[in-house]
């Protein structure tokens, strides 16, 4: 019988790593690895992984600041409802990191406020 404290589904990686390897840029199984840039850092993720999941796997938990006050935000709901996880992907602001899958060569940057600086706060 399964121990109830263990998850019933395979998380795809060692426990406690967020699904991506331990060291920065290290992801298990090179055949399924995509490389992307986040705020100037070269990172790796599993093919098909969300941007939020990839960032969590590297210990990055905040990647947006609020319009009023510049408070840090990251994933909150994890299912695309709350808009706390917004990032800029390949120059397009307002992308929900929990829904967008990371692709080879993506450039992802933190988003400040609504992501449209010229429009004001």
Comma- or semicolon-separated keywords:
single chain, 121 residues, 6% helix, seven-stranded mixed sheet
Question: How are the SSEs ordered, and which strands pair?
Answer:
Elements: E1 33-38, E2 41-46, H1 51-57, E3 64-65, E4 72-73, E5 86-89, E6 92-96, E7 107-112
Parallel strand pairs: 1-7, 3-7
Antiparallel strand pairs: 1-2, 3-4, 5-6, 5-7
Query: Please, what is the average pLDDT?
Result: 78
- Radius of gyration over all CA atoms, rounded: 15 Å
How far apart are the termini?
Answer: 56 Å
Helix content: under 10%
Order of helices and strands: EEHEEEEE
**Number of strand segments:** 7
> Helix/strand/pairing class, anyone?
mainly beta
Shape: globular
User: Number of DSSP helices?
Assistant: 1
Portion of residues in beta strands equals 25-35%
Q: Give the uncertain stretches in residue-range form.
A: 1-23
The main sheet comes to: 7 strands, mixed
Walk me through the structure:
Helices cover 6% and strands 26% of the residues. It is built from one helix and seven strands. Strands 1, 2, 3, 4, 5, 6 and 7 form a seven-stranded mixed beta sheet that branches. A hairpin with a 2-residue loop joins strand 1 and strand 2. The longest helix is centred in the middle third of the chain and has 7 residues. The N terminus is likely disordered.
